[in-house]
Amino acid sequence: MSKLTDILDQPEGRRLEFKESFPSKSDLSKTVIAFANDAGGELYLGIKNKPREVIGLNEDDLLQTEEKIASLVHDLCAPVILPEVSFLQFDGKHVIRVKIHKGNTPPYHLKTKEVGNGTFIRVGSTNRLASKEMIYELERQQNNISFDSELIYSETVDQLNLSSFREQFKDKTGEELSSNILNKLKLVKTNQGKELPTNALLLLSDDKLRRQYFPYAKIECARFKGTDPGNFIDQKTIDAPLGLQAEQAFQFLLRHISQGTTDYTGVYRNDRWEYPITAIREIIRNAVIHRDYSLSGKDIKVAIFDDKIEITSPGKLMPSVDFSDMESGQSEIRNKILAPVFKHLGIIEQWGNGLKLISKDLEAYPEIELSWKEPGIAFRVIFTNTKFTQQPELQQELQQELQQELQHELQHELQHELQHESKQPTLYTQVLKLVEQKTASTKELSVSLGQKSISGHLKRILAKLRQGGLVEWTQPDAGQSSKQQYQITQKGKIFLLLLKKKNL
Questions:
Q1: More reliable by pLDDT, 389 or 169
Q2: Are 379 and 312 in contact (CB under 8 A)?
Q3: What is the pLDDT of residue 408?
Q4: Angstrom distance (rounded) from CA 22 to CA 45
Q5: Does the structure show a pLDDT above 60 at 329?
Q6: Segment 459-464 mean pLDDT
Q7: Rounded CA gap, 285 and 290, in Å?
Q8: What is the pLDDT of residues 20-29, one digit of tens each?
Q9: Which range (268-277, 394-403, 425-434) has the least confidence?
Q10: Helix, strand or coil, per DSSP, at residue 233
Q11: In angstroms, rounded to a whole number, what is the distance separating the alpha carbons of residues 365 and 257?
Q12: Parallel, antiparallel, or unpaired: how do β-strands 300-304 and 219-224 relate?
């Protein structure tokens, strides 16, 4: 147990609440139930929250208060919750601590109401009525099963499009994705003589059913202008199969942060990204691996601002994970089927190593502050550049002038293409506009253009765009593999802008 002096310095939150005096029956029971349904928690009676002050309780009433707490919890909460009640002193004042452990038989609820309208969960420092989705998740926790292990009954495994997953699995493991491996990884289960896919396999697939069942299983990436949400400089929706999403989001982020020279070691230049990219990569991976896929209408968000990067993942942080203790090698898995698959694919490197990697990488970035919060039923990690200052007006003007100079240089460099495309847009512009909307492979571009098969003309256009620096490969080291994708560059965006101006 932490010392009371340490507790007094902590804000109210997921596992901590303060009450100046004995709360109402309703408040007490909801807090106890919410703690039991989540990570457990401690309720302190006799301490005012705002402003934080130890008020104290009457010493003569302590034993009676303890009995009252035990009686109310027994009478109002179900299944049975056993609170630990202890007496503490601070500067001669008496405080009661009520400790609630994480329950083993959720969902806990009010005895006077049904589970559907009497179950409460902890969201930040508040108690909220649980949604049906959250109640189902609590029931799964009681039965030690995960959402990603549940079956899809509308298609059998042999009907599912697994082409991209098969390629990725072969590339990363050197093995064919056989029926035996699918069973070994528990991605399929036999039900009434049929091999049915799990939610996990559907999420990893290319099948159209994935977007039908999980339209929200995607990552929304955005680079905002300034320090607050508002105007987009760039944005991208990543709705590829799950095994590809983390890397694509990471590549989007790298396009929008800078890499500069810090100093020299002898004649060698020392380059450093402006943010700790190993830590960021790990947070993006965790967002994909540990998000709650049972929550509908919620997607992962990667938001880049002038002064910070925010990564938000649907679902509460797992109960046993403490972000304030990164060195302890914590590991709790929400998606019990997906996680081992990600380990095979190399997306997870070592169990319990993620927070250590983040902590280690941050050591080289004293100017970057790591923080986190739980906005609703989600977990957000923020990397803030504490040395960021708003650009002075003169610097902004200089930046605009540099942008205009760049446009002028490109207008001269690509004069022939601009004149040609302004008269009659060809495949050159069509392909560039498609890649601007969404990162895509050669095959995906061919389909979008209505081609029955990949044409030699399309391949030549892509080579020309890449040679001109208007598009680039998302995986430079992979070469022209079937999984290679193209993304637009800043130069490509300026070309389209110049073309638009020319056509006005």
A1: 169
A2: yes
A3: 63
A4: 6
A5: no
A6: 90
A7: 8
A8: 999 999 999 9
A9: 394-403
A10: strand
A11: 15
A12: parallel
392, 32 Cβ separation under 8 angstroms: no
Q: What angle do CA 423, 425, 430 make, to 5 degrees?
A: 165
What's the rounded Cα separation, in Å, for the pair 160 and 37?
Answer: 36
pLDDT band at 5 (very low <50, low <70, confident <90, very high): confident
| Number of neighbouring beta carbons within 10 Å of residue 376 | 13
Q: Single out the residue of 164, 161, 156 nearest to residue 189, CA to CA.
A: 156
Lowest mean pLDDT among 80-89, 133-142, 414-423, 435-444: 414-423
Name the DSSP letter for residue 326: G
Please say whether the beta carbons of 195 and 154 come within 8 A.
no
| Distance between CA atoms of residues 251 and 273, nearest Å | 13
For the chain, what percentages of helix, strand and coil (3-state, to nearest 5) are there?
40, 25, 35
Q: What is d(CA 272, CA 261) in angstroms, rounded to the nearest whole number?
A: 6
Q: Do domains 219-385 and 393-503 have the same CATH topology?
A: no
Q: Which fold has domain 219-385?
A: Heat Shock Protein 90 (3.30.565)
Average pLDDT over residues 478-493: 82
CATH match for 393-503 among 1.10.10.10, 1.10.443.10, 1.10.8.100, 3.20.20.140: 1.10.10.10
For the domain bounded by 4-131, which CATH number is listed? 3.30.950.30
Cα-based distances in Å from 266 to 262, 263, 329, 411: 13, 10, 37, 40
What are the extents of the domains in the chain? 4-131, 147-213, 219-385, 393-503
Q: What is the pLDDT of residue 269?
A: 45
- The span from the CA of 196 to the CA of 158, in Å, is 9
For residues 486 and 461, give the distance between their C-alpha atoms in angstroms, rounded to a whole number: 12
